[in-house]
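Internal tracking record. Fields below are filled automatically when a chain is submitted to the structure queue. Please do not edit lines marked as system-generated. If the sequence contains nonstandard residues, flag them in the REMARKS field before resubmitting.
Queue: standard
Priority: normal
Entity type: single polypeptide chain
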Amino acid sequence: MKKDRSNAIDTPSGSTDAARNKSKNIYVDINDLRRLQHKAKGFSFLTKQPVNSALSGKNVSKLRGRGLNFEELRHYRPGDDIRSMDWKVTRRTGKPHIKVYTEERERNVYLVVNQSSSMFFGSTNKMKSVIAAEIAALMAWKVTDSGDRIGAVVFNDKQVKVVSAKRGKLHVVNVLAEVVKMNHQLKVGKGEPNSNSINEALIKISHICGHNALIIIVGDGHGWDTKSTQLIKNIRQHNDVIACQIYDPLEQQLPEMSNMVVSDGEKQIQFSSLNRNTQEKYRVSIEQQENRFESATRKNRIPLLSLNTLEPIEKQLRKALGKAG
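SYSTEM-GENERATED OUTPUT FOLLOWS
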C-alpha cells in the first residue's frame, strides 16, 4: 500500500533556508555527499570487530578481509607453518616444500544502492532514498581511506548502472554522481515499481564481483523473493556481504485516521484506517516483506544493519559497527 509521498515532507513558507534544507531531505546533493568524507569515521569493515558490532556474533560469518596472492614455492625452513606445506611437490621431489602467500594490498568493495520508487518515502525527516545515498557516501569514503577499490551497482525501476571498482577520491565522486543522477529521477507517480529490479542488480553484481570482494547492499528490502535469496547465496559463497535495511517508522504501522487519503501521485483512494481488518492486512504485508529479507540474511550469515530515516546516519553506522560517538 502506498502512502502519499508527495506530502511526506512539506516545505514551510516564509523561510528560504528551511525550504532549502527540506529540499535536501527529498533529493540528495552531490556537495553534501562530498562533505560526508569528514564524517566517515568511527566504523570499519575489519575482520576483528568489537563485541557489540553487527559484524560480530555467533550467527554472523566473519569477514574474510583481503584475499591472498600466491607468491612462491620454496623449501621448508624450520619455523614455517606446516599447514602451508605443498604435499604434492614434497612427494614428487622428496624434499619438503611450502607455498608462500602474501595478503592482497587492496580489495574490491561494491555498493549495491537502491534508488527505486519504493525508496522515495519519508515521513518526518529524510527520504529513504536520501539515506541510502548518504550511507553509500560514508561507505565509499571509508573504503577509499582504507586504500581499497570502490565500485557500485546503482539501480532504480528501469535501469541498472554499473561503476567499475577503482581507487581514489575522484572515483568516489564519480560513484556518488551516479547515485545522485538516479536519485533525482525519482518523482511521485512516475511509473510503476519494478519488484524485479533488486534481482537485476544482484545478477549484475554477481557477474563483476569475482572472489574476495565485499558487497554492501543498501536498500529497504522491497521486492526480495526466493530468486533474490538464491542469488545472494551464490554471491556469498566467495565474497563477504553486508546488508543495510532502511526503514521509516511510519511504514511500520498505519496512523489511525477516520478519513485517510492515500495517493501515488496519479490516483488516490479514501478510507478509514481505524478498521482493524485494514490495519492487520497492512501489518502482515509489511512483516512479510521484511521477513523475507531478514530470513535471507540470517540463513546466509550476512550482517544486517537496520537503519532509520530519523537519526543522523553516521551515528547509526558507528553504533551498528561497534563504536559510539
